[in-house]
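Here is a typical protein record:
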Amino acid sequence: MIRIDKLSIVFSLLFGCSLTVIADSMDRDWEQRAAKKLAENVKGSENLWLEARGKDFLALYTSQPDEDVHGAVILLHAMGGHADWPQTISPLRTRLPEHGWATLSVQLPVLAPENQIEDYGSTLKQAADRIRAAVRFLRERKFLNIAVIGHSFGAATALAYLEKEKKQQVVAFVALGLQEYPFVKPAIDILGLIEKTKIPVLDLYGGRDLRNVINQAPDRRLAAKKGNNRQYTQLEVEGADHYFNKMEDLLVKRISGWLDKAAPAMSITVDEDFDGNKENNDDKPAEQ
């Protein structure tokens, strides 16, 4: 009887590992097919294949049209989306450059339809590697002033990344439609992550947003207060839904205006790469 139990455990472990490998491969294939199709069709950007831990992922880079450079923004889409999602992400990707902010929209890990949605919690580590690679790319492009904008689960992903970074390379964070995800495994402690975030934060949501986003707004404010983050700002946009449909102009205006105050333009000079020890990190605001 004992021998059977031991064999059962061994087979369970082997079978479980096999299922994990199959699921990972399925997710990877699904994402790659979607990303390649997106890269073929998207316009007005520099389509890049960045690398994180030996695996390529798509990122869409859009530069500012003139020399009035304020900085660069990394965009993180919602759960199951893509780097040019037509709601929220695409308007920000294409319009923020007009306000002096270059954009780099990152393709986050997605699960194949056959897999369970609660498994998105397991994508956070891989997503953090991609955000790290995105920051490295922007540093190589001589950007010091780097912000992150995350929509919905993309905002939760950004919080998880920021909590792990000892040497902070991101100077500001915009969370759009942020909420708890109780169904995700492993669990994500959104309020705990907000409490630990020390950089300027804009918590932006709509007056007609998802119920949880609106109901949890006081808890998010309290978490920032407990963390003594005096650079945390919460703003409700009256009439806006979770995706800011038909209010994209106002969304871009609110975010660019806040970024210009929370992350004023810095001289863009970098002597060493992202992992180097030497930098000419001149934090003095650039002359306007």
